[in-house]
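Me: I hope this is not a bother. Any chance you could explain this protein sequence and its structure tokens? It all follows right here:
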Amino acid sequence: MVELPPLPLLIALVVILPLAAASGWLVARRSMKAASATKRPDLSSDYFRGLNFLLNEQPDKAIEVFIQMLEVDSETVETHLALGNLFRRRGEVDRAIRIHQNIIARPTLSREQRSLALYELGQDYMTAGLLDRAENLFQELIDLGEYKTEALRQLLEIYEQEKDWKNAIEVARQYEFAAGVKTSTVIAHYYCECSEQAMQKNELRTARQMVKKALAADRNCVRASLLMGQLDMLDGDCKSAIRAYRKVEDQDADYLSEVIEPLENCYRSSNDVAELKKYLNDLLQRYGGVTVMLSLASIIKQEQDERAATNFIIEELRKRPSVRGLERLVAYNMQGTEGAAKDNLYILNDLIKKLLGIKALYKCKSCGFEGKALHWHCPSCKRWNTVKPIQDIVET
């Protein structure tokens, strides 16, 4: 029986031998063009030396030999670029960086070839987490006017990772002009990020200025209205806060559940529960929503009694089943029940709480990412303003 080489060696052979063959072919072809018979023994020895490294399970040394066999010039640069990209995709970023740096160092390349090598090297640095080096390369490409759109897009990603929102705003504007793509929604979120940073430092005046700029960039920015309402509440201006929160309905009704609790606090602070009840009833008729329904149930219980609130919840659950609505209904019934029936309700309540504990509250409309917290910037697909409260037949 023929003994096969070990699995790592087989894998190395599968990956490297085609490269070695291509390298040998390219070198031989160039040698024939030059009609230089004196170089053939050296090239042949290099080729077999690389194969010897492979057979001795030394793929790193073999790769170095095959790379050296391919002289970088205008005819082989595409081969080197493809090799560097292959290494980057396989996670071997150090090798990709060496190859692309070697390409850039060659004086015989055309402007276009060098620019492409710079762009690829910038991607290598980003993959390696060397954001400062990547930033410098992409900025160089922008200054050269080469791969400008791609470089701007990469810079945006860098500034988002670094939370450098000031530069992100500037680059987003340049990208809009270069690519012809509207960036107003993204810019509005950048200003909101600036506002939140200012609020953390208790710089409320700056925070308010940033929110105004966000709304100037995108008047339908829900996040900006939520921040404005929060700032108004910090200033003790409940009426202004109510106006800010009520804008959300016209901006994007999908986010209405996010404003119910702060709106309720504003109206109660203003001693205007009647107006709150009227507004909630209007919202319930137009959009439904378990958060609106539960807020109304609390008001009904306070103004009338628990039975009236229970009947209201039952009627709404018939129209729009929801887990949170069922949880509230069980909680109300537990208070007026004794004995075995109450024990059964406790069991049911525990099951509902476990169900709520595992169910996502938000979902990205772009990639399907789910979570329990609202992310304005999707952690999965990195898009802005795509994560929204889940609104389905079994609402949470």
Remarks:
- Confidence is low (pLDDT under 50) at residues 1-17, 20-44.
